[in-house]
Each structure stands twice: as C-alpha cells, then as structure tokens.
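User: For a teaching handout, I'd like to show students what a predicted protein-ligand complex looks like in token form. I'll give you the sequence and the SMILES for magnesium ion. Please answer with just the structure.
Assistant: Understood, here is the input followed by the structure.
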Amino acid sequence: MTVESTAARKPRRSSGTKRAAGAASAAKPAAATAQTQDVVPQLVQLLTPEGDRVENAENAEFAPFVADITTEDLRGLYRDMVMTRRFDGEATALQRQGELGLWASLLGQEAAQIGSGRALNDEDYVFPTYREHGVAWCRGVDPTNLLGMFRGVNHGGWDPNTNNFHLYTIVIGSQTLHATGYAMGVAKDGADSAVIAYFGDGASSQGDVAEAFTFSAVYNSPVVFFCQNNQWAISEPTERQMRVPLYQRAQGFGFPGVRVDGNDVLACLAVTRWALDRARRGEGPTLVEAFTYRMGAHTTSDDPTKYRRDEETAAWEAKDPILRLKAHLLATGGADEAFFTELEAESEAMGKRVREAVRAMPDPDTMAIFENVYADGHALVDEERAQFAAYLASFEEGH
Ligand SMILES: Cc1ncc(C[n+]2csc(CCOP(=O)(O)OP(=O)(O)O)c2C)c(N)n1
Ligand SMILES: [Mg+2]
C-alpha cells in the first residue's frame, strides 16, 4: 500500500471463500501503487465483449481469485443474470401498467451486481442503493419483496437481518456511512466477515461518501466500497462529477482503488473476492469501480433521450454483460441450446409469479405508517397518530 495504516487492528483470519487455494498469498494490493502512474486508466477484464478469456498484466493479480470457477459455476452466473434481467423487465412493465409507482431498472448492470454479489459469504453484510436487484437476488431476497416499496404498500419489504441485506437507501451515498459504522463494529467484534457498500458515480460526489472513505481508512475497517459507475447520475454525465478516474480517488484516502470491467461478470467476481479478502485479513477498505452502463432510464420517471445520444447507448449495447457470457459458453461448449431454452422458460415462469404476487399485495392499514418509526414509543409520533386518526374519523362522521 502507498499509505501506512494507522490502525493497529490485529489481522484477521481469511474465511472460507470459494476461492482457489493459494490465491490469498498472491493478493497484494498492487493496484494501489499502479494507480498513481496511470495515464490510461486501468480496466481489469477477464472476458472480452466477444466472450474470449484474456490473460494480461492487469488481470494477473485477480485471475487466481476465480481459478476455482467451473463451467457449472459459469452457467450459474449466467442464470443469475438472466433471471435478474427478466425480473427487472417485469418490474418496468408493471410500472407502465400502473401496478408500481416507480421502478429503478438495473438493465446493463447485471454483471457488476451478480459478480460482486456472488463474491460474498453469507455472514457478510450488504448496504445497497435502490438499484441492487441483482445483489438482492444473490442474497436470496425473494424478488417480490423488492416491489412492495415501489408499489407503496410498505416501507421496505424484507427483514435486513434475514439475508444480511440492508433495506434500499434512496438518500444517495448515506449507506456508505452506515456500512462504515457497521464495519467498525464488525472489527471490534473480531468477527470474520466483511461489509460491502454499493453506490453510484453520482453518489461519489456526496460528502457522506468522502466521510465514509476517511473513517474507514483511518479505522482500517473491513469494508468494500463497490461503485457502479454507470456513466450517468440521472442526466449528469460522469465528466460533471469528477476530474480523475473514479477509482483513483481512493489513493488520496489511503487505500487501494481498482477499476474493473463492470460488464464482465467473471472480472467483477474476481476483483470483489480480492477486495473482500483484503478486508477479512485486516487490510482495510478497498474501492472497486465497476465501469458499466445504465442501459435504461434512470427510473421510469426519466426520459434519457432528452440528454444522451443513441450512439452512446448503442456502443454499450455491444458490451452487453449477458451476451458476452453467452458467447463464451457457446464457444467453449459450456452450455447447449437446451440450457438456454430451459432458462428462458424458467425466467418466464418467474415473471408470471412476480406479476401475480404484485397484483395480490394487500393495501396497507392506513395507520401502519406510524409503526416502526422508533423501536419504542415516542411522544411526537403518538400525537401525530392521534391527530391522523381524528382526521380520518372526521370523514366517517360526515364532516
Ligand atoms: C442526498 C440526495 N440527493 C439527491 C437525490 C436525488 N437523486 C436520486 S438518484 C440521483 C442520482 C444518483 O446517481 P448515481 O449515484 O450515479 O446512481 P445511479 O442512479 O446512476 O445508479 C439523485 C441526484 C437523492 N436521492 N439523495
Ligand atoms: Mg450513476
């Protein structure tokens, strides 16, 4: 590392990731030293857009972390991405049909989310934004649970402690602070797990994110900052957010940053395993910049044709994360047509299940909005509950 850690936390044992034996010893944060000299930004890639495996100096550090990945594992990653895209497409359609108030699509970001999500152990803890539907899938959160908040029938939809997957966070960047605090707690407990915080390129301009970087660096917290640079923060392009490649910012805070091809699921898996391994071994935070693209609108309330060119979107479509792995599987004989046909049927069945589940969601009890505001009672909430109940009763009395 370029900066000595000031925290004297005892190094923690590496836990049982599925990684190949021997990979941990090869895991020096070399990217931290390389980043200062970067003229052309690095991009860790293991699969080209055409689906070919590549070996080069930039990925040599990370490739050992997926040495154990079998053809069956690759089919699993492919299935995860297809199921996630199908779910996401269904949610967008449900919003258009008036069944959801809003939806934030992950279209194009499947590899970043599945690669990083599958790098996690069960005990690790995840702090997502509002777009991490693929990570939720990896954590085992039922897709239908993601839709309650977007339908306006609940404030979250799942118990964060069941899957170590926090509720979606709309206040951009704030979850990086939650993750840092949680990671500081994990370190104090001497636990053998790591924490991952997801955020976007736009969120990286938030003060909260700078504070999270500072605290996690100084306390050497076991946290991975996983930034999906999807090139846009609603209508603001990345040029309006930063003057240096995003991953290089980490150096100023004293921890390594790595830019990975965010449309390459294998590279995302490798780099995230590497970063989690550092965290578990007591080497502190890492910034992973997954360089990807938001192929859809910011949300269903947005119209990207107002601010970005069709040629840009078309160029990124050629780097589609799902088509890239499909090309690889076909070229290597890793999957046959029957696999793709069966998966298509499975994803269609899931879409149908989600559609039916959303339509069947009961409307909430009007007074439920006052529940779970505080763990215990609170005088102001009690007063507001009483006022609202009186207001509702006034209609019943015919006033
Ligand atoms: C603190 C805060 N400021 C502004 C907003 C409004 N807002 C919602 S999403 C967004 C852009 C986020 O862009 P990025 O971090 O790149 O994530 P992406 O949506 O691209 O995944 C903004 C400004 C917000 N939710 N929270
Ligand atoms: Mg963005």
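For the handout, you might add this sentence: The pocket of thiamine diphosphate (ligand 1) is lined by residues 131, 170-172, 200-203, 230, 232-234, 294, 298 (CB under 6 Å).
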